[in-house]
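ok so I'm stuck.
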Amino acid sequence: MAGSEPRKLEGGRRVHGLSPERPPLVSVITAVYNGGATLERAITSVVSQVCARMEFIIIDGGSTDCSIDLLRKYENSIDYWISEDDKGIYDALNKGIALATGEWLYFLGADDALADVNVLNAIFSQQYDSKFLYGDVVYGNTGRIYGGGFTKRMLTKENICQQGIFYHVDLFKILGNFDLKYPLLADWVFNMRAFALSGTKPTHLNVIVAEYSLAGASNRIIDVAFAKDRFALINKYLGFSYYLLAIFYQLIDQFIANYKKYVAGTLSKICSRRQRQ
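replied:
not stuck anymore, here's the structure
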C-alpha cells in the first residue's frame, strides 16, 4: 500500500530478554531469502551443536515462503532473527556482523549445514594465535572435500570456501564489512585483504567444518563486478608479483582451453574419419 512502512519482523531469545550468561565465543550468522526448502536443515545443524558459548543470528531478506514459519518454530533456539528487505547476501551478512557479540564470526548459508554436532566445540576447545581460522568443506552429496592450506598465490586462482572460515571480529573492526560492490564474491575480496593484513596469521585446521551446497548463487551466476576488478584487486591487496602470476595463470588456462577446443578437437575428428575409411 502506498506510503506504508516496509515490513519488519523480528524474534528470538534476545527479543524475549534472554541473553547468554557469558559473552558468546562464536557467532553463527545465516542470511536467507525464500530458503524454506533447505533452511531447517541449516538451523538444526546449528542448534544441535554441543558448543556452550555460541549465539545464532539469522537475517532474512523479507521471505514470502515458509522461512518465517521456520524461524518462529525455532524461536527459542535462535538468539535473534529479523526479516526485512535488504540489498543482497552481503548486506544481510553485514547486518549480522553489526548484531553479533561473539569473538569469532562464522557464516553458514541457508542451504548448507555444519558437518556434525561437535564441530564448533572441537575447533574452539583451544586457543589460536590467529585472526583467521579455516577448515575444509564437503561439496554437497559428492563426497568431494574442498580445502587444504591456502597461500596468497593460491588465493589469486581460487577462493577459500566461506563455510569453512572463522573470522575474528577484529578483522571486521580493522578492515570494515563486506563490500557490496561485489554481490556474490565479496568474501573473496575480504579474504585477500585479510591475508594481506599483518598479524592475521591465517591458520588451516584439519577439520571438515560444513557440507557446502553446490546450488548456491555463486556457483550459478557470475559476479560481473568481481570478474572485471579481479586483477586490480590482486594487485592492490596481494601485490604486483601476485598480479603478474595471476595473469600468467590466466594465459595458461586460455592456452589449455584453446588447445582442447581447436587442436584436440580437430585431431579427434581426423582420427574418427580415418577409422571410418
